[in-house]
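Annotated sample (chain length 118).
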Amino acid sequence: MFEATLKQLVNRVDGARGAAVLNLDGVVLEAVDEKGNDLGADAALTEFAPVIGQLLGAAESAELGEPTQLTLEGAERTTLVRSLTDKYVAALHVSPDSLIGKAHFHLRVAAPDLAREL
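Output written by the structure step:
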C-alpha cells in the first residue's frame, strides 16, 4: 500500500535507514529498510508511537498551532516524524551525519502521497 512511496523516500535521502507509516497507537502499517525491504512492525517505532502522540498533543496545547513535524535525535540515528492525519504519521530514520534539512524536505514532499493512501 505505502511501499512504493516509502521506497522512493528512502532512495532519495542519503543516509536513510528506513521509513514507515504508523498510527499513534503504535501499529506500524508498513515499514521499509534502507534497501527497500519490508521491515514489518519496527519495534522502535511501536514504542515511540504513544510518545509521539503525546508530544504532538503537547505542541498543540502549547498553542504552537497544528504540529506538523518533530525530530528525535540519538547517537545512532535520527528519526524524523511528520503528521499525515490526526491519527497517522510518517517516520524516516536517517544516520546522524545525514543532511537533516534535505531529509525533512523529502519527507514533507512524500507526506501528501502517503496521506492519500490511508
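Annotation: DSSP finds three helices and five strands in the chain.
Annotation: The longest helix spans residues 43-61.
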